[in-house]
Design brief:
Layout: E1 7-9, H1 20-27, H2 31-45, H3 54-60, E2 65-69, E3 76-80, E4 87-88, E5 91-92, H4 94-117, H5 123-136, E6 148-152, H6 159-174, E7 178-181, H7 190-201, E8 209-213, E9 229-232, H8 236-246, E10 249-252, H9 257-270, E11 281-286, H10 291-304, E12 314-317, H11 320-341, H12 355-358, H13 365-369, H14 379-398, H15 400-409, E13 412-414, H16 418-433, E14 448-450
Parallel strand pairs: 6-7, 6-10, 7-8, 8-9, 10-11, 11-12, 13-14
Antiparallel strand pairs: 1-3, 2-3, 4-5
């Protein structure tokens, strides 16, 4: 496999102003953090490939090395044996280089700060940490009118589905809206690509394509080249909190287990009584060819969470202009609501997130089997538990910890109310049949068993 020999890189826009103490903090990072940094850096450098398994990636580039070299002008990254797709004529692509320094900033520097600066056992402490990570990455900015549409969807989708996400992004861009996604391919790239054209036609000065990710998923969803603001949160729960606190509206496209996790997460919040006054539009958008997807998801929600859950979202099929119009309307309502209550535009401090949704869920076999998937819990709690079930399946598909768990102990086992488990099995089977679980769908083996 072709690889690029040693290359020394300077910061493009980030991390070029650090004190000696901060640079020493980068240099003295623990081995565990350096291993994580190497893994995320390799994923960024390998963006655009068809590989979404971190273990395969690490095996293919076993001799990849990255080192931080301190200098008074800012740290230099020394990269050796990197994937050639990150280079043009021997020079690293500028966007990839910037993403690489974003990895350094968030994985190494932020991990060091989290261990000494925040009470991560308290709700406010976690939210403070999320806010500071986003502010440190220059994602949260003061005095900007609400304009951010968060777009969720799968990285393994059909061409027709991708084109629809691009059409929606184009319409959002024409209406002056900026985009945040999980930063990867598929439904995370399409809205950004479409918005870029819409922004260009409107001669929009501030064009924001925000990619929000976390170390466990970055190999499967490496930043696409349109992302111009990348931030890496420490875990999936802080990533999800960053999405919903930044969002002025959320548009969800068809996807697999990860998209189901995101949708159930936001539903569990909107269903909570303490968020009854929140204004956060939630649109489920699909192309005409994929209309059955959200019809099935809507039926799943009704059968598991009840009719009341459906009031928190709307479904729009085959009409990209209508999706964008409704998104813009939701964002205008969001602005008026926050203006009335004196709330911040750039970060939703008022949204109530229960502590259990902030605590990282570790997808061990024991924890997956212990999930309360029955009607004995409140609907918002059931949504939260179903979110964890899908989170575990995502881990078993693409995350290092989950892949190793499945390799050692076999598929996860889940159990619960007969009706809920039947609906869950149907939903997961449809994801497999529609090739939404992995890019390498031909060799996919389910990582779960439902009893």
């Amino acid at each position: 496999m072709e690889k690029i020999s040693r290359e020394n890189l300077r910061p493009v826009r980030t991390l070029n102003m650090l004190s000696s103490k901060e640079i020493q903090g980068l240099m003295s990072s623990q081995d565990k953090v350096h291993k994580l940094f190497r893994q995320c850096a390799l994923a960024v450098l390998n963006a655009g490939s068809d590989m979404d398994d971190v273990t395969q990636l690490l095996e293919a580039y076993r001799d990849f090395e990255i080192e931080v070299i301190p200098q008074s002008r800012g740290p230099i990254l020394s990269v050796d044996n990197a994937p050639p797709t990150a280079f043009v004529d021997g020079n690293m692509i500028r966007a990839v280089q910037e993403h690489l320094f974003s990895v350094l900033r968030d994985v190494v520097y932020v991990n060091h700060a989290l261990n000494i600066s925040y009470d991560l056992d308290s709700r406010r402490g976690v939210t403070d940490a999320v806010f500071d990570i986003l502010r440190n990455a220059d994602i949260v900015r003061p005095n900007l009118r609400p304009d951010l549409a968060v777009c969720w969807g799968g990285h393994s989708i059909s061409r027709a589905e991708y084109d629809f996400t691009k059409d929606v992004g184009y319409q959002l861009g024409l209406r002056g809206l900026n985009i945040a996604t999980g930063c990867g391919p598929g439904a995370m790239k399409g809205p950004m690509k479409g918005a870029a054209i819409g922004h260009s036609k409107q001669l929009q000065d501030m064009r924001r394509y925000i990619g929000i990710t976390e170390p466990g998923i970055i190999a499967a969803e490496a930043p696409n080249p349109i992302v111009n603001e990348l931030v890496i949160l420490p875990d999936i729960e802080k990533r999800l909190e960053a999405f919903v606190r930044l969002a002025h509206c959320i548009v969800v496209f068809p996807g697999g287990a990860g998209t189901a996790e995101e949708l159930l997460y936001v539903l569990s919040l909107l269903m909570h009584e303490r968020n009854a006054d929140q204004r956060l539009g939630l649109i489920l958008a699909a192309s005409e060819e994929s209309k059955d997807y959200f019809e099935a998801f809507d039926a799943f929600i009704r059968d598991t969470l009840g009719e009341a859950a459906t009031q928190h979202y709307e479904i729009i099929v085959g009409d990209s202009e209508e999706v964008a119009r409704r998104a813009k309307q939701h964002i205008v309502e969001c602005r008026k609501h926050r203006m009335k209550h004196g709330a911040a535009y750039g970060f939703n401090w008022e949204l109530y997130i229960p502590a259990e949704l902030q605590t990282p869920f570790e997808p061990t076999h024991e924890n997956m089997a212990a999930l309360a998937l029955d009607y004995s819990v409140n609907p918002y709690q059931l949504a939260s538990n179903l979110r964890k079930a899908f989170s575990g399946i995502v881990a078993g598909n693409v995350k290092p910890f989950g892949i190793e768990e499945i390799k050692q102990h076999g598929p996860y086992t889940m159990q619960g109310d007969e009706k809920i488990m039947a609906r869950l099995q149907d939903m997961l089977d449809s994801f497999v049949a529609q090739r939404r679980m992995k890019i390498d769908f031909a060799n996919y083996k389910p990582c779960w068993i439902i009893q």
